[in-house]
Here is the input.
Amino acid sequence: MIESSDFDFSGQRVLVTGAAGGIGSAMAAAFAAHGGEVILADIATNGLAEQADALGNGATFLQYDQSDSASIVALSDAAGPVDVLCNNAGAMQAGPFLEQSPETIERMITVDLTGPVLVARHIGEGMVARGRGVIVNTASQLAFHGSGFRTAYATAKAGIVQFTKSAAAEWAPHGVRVVALAPGRTLTAMNAPLLATEEQRAEGLKHIPAGRYGDREEMAKLALFLASDAASYVVGETLVADGGYVLL
Ligand SMILES: NC(=O)c1ccc[n+]([C@@H]2O[C@H](COP(=O)([O-])OP(=O)(O)OC[C@H]3O[C@@H](n4cnc5c(N)ncnc54)[C@H](O)[C@@H]3O)[C@@H](O)[C@H]2O)c1
Here is the structure.
């Protein structure tokens, strides 16, 4: 039987990276609403203090840069013991691969793959030592199909899916579950430039059987589910929430 206590995060510390962004801020709100003590982390701090105040439950914020390994260590030290990590921060720059500079390509691989792997490595170390914890990585539907004009980003997100499986296999015996969420096209700042015009939005919808774009609250609910006891036997899996995009 599903118990409402399965979704009770009271007494748990929940670190959400990318918490200033669309999906991350919805995740932070969802966990706080279910009793979690949320730590909001992001490179951007604009409004994060107010966001933490509004969430209550002892929510705090920390600034860090996911492209800087020293900053990730500092984040992990400052966060202290974490029960749930929403490893969600990311950045995407679209464009023809050959027109992207090597620095741009390297930065996307760093922010979207190396960075989250290191965040999980440092936060996960404490979880393994304590014998409990859940990591929910944010991948992308683009991990599952080729995507011209987002080549470096899609490559990094495919790496997140493999990292999720591999870390899960290593840490499940230590009581730590590693899972991932793969959002489809969700209306946030990240893809606003790609969906700026009515024409772009209509064209995009042709590829989504559900006939609409995703909502950040929908993604937050799935992160909450994946981190909850209702998903206690889900290990290494990536849950795709894309309105059926990958089916076409
Ligand atoms: N929106 C979508 O359609 C979509 C689809 C699939 C996957 N995703 C993934 O969902 C996650 C959240 O994206 P979103 O849609 O909310 O976008 P967003 O741009 O609103 O949020 C991303 C957040 O990550 C933060 N960030 C970027 N670079 C950082 C760095 N170097 N250090 C620390 N923080 C950094 C940004 O400041 C921002 O607050 C990302 O991992 C993204 O790749 C989004």
Notes: Residues 4-243 form a domain with the Rossmann fold fold (CATH 3.40.50.720). Residues 17 and 124 are 14 Å apart (CA to CA). The pocket of nicotinamide-adenine-dinucleotide is lined by residues 18, 20-24, 42-44, 64-67, 88-92, 111, 138, 140, 183, 185-186, 188-191 (CB under 6 Å). The mean pLDDT is 97.
